[in-house]
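Handoff note, outgoing to incoming analyst
You'll be picking up this chain. Sequence as last confirmed:
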Amino acid sequence: MPDQKKQRLAWAITGSGHYLRESLAVLQTLENVDIFLSKAAAEIIKQYGFQAQLDVTGHKVYQDKTASSVPVELFYAGKYHTLVIAPATSNTIAKMAYGFSDSLVTNLYAQAGKTRVPSIIFACDTVPEVGENSIESEAPRDNFVKVCPRKIDLENVEKLASFEHTKIAESFSCLCEAVSMRLADVHSRVG
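Most recent structure output, in case you need it:
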């Protein structure tokens, strides 16, 4: 049985700029976190000029550099109490919704589920705010673009929401609340 006092938070980032700056800011406030970057996330972080923001978190960073996603074995060892995937691209959401585990992030999600570790996912393509038909997303060089989620993207998020041990955060504020509540729950059990 894993030592719950030593368990950590696993936070995976995919290749989207949507709330990436904010996700990195939240990571700076957390302790006992390991960060996992998809290949696209590693590129996007540099493209957006966020490498220093990632580095200042002080967390251990794993990158998608092996065909077999070697870091997933940490879930088998009971190292993590929670997996957060934020931001999660529509590509990653689609793969997870249909059971693919062909990258570091999708493999982390599959292994978290198989080891009964709860996952909190913030999808880039979510339902826009009431009265809106698009969401504003950060692009490189301090630009913002309007993005209209496709029907298939929204359906994949809905499908993923039905998976056991999975919570979908429908907004960034919902993500922050879900992470905060989960950490409070974990700390109360090991306190």
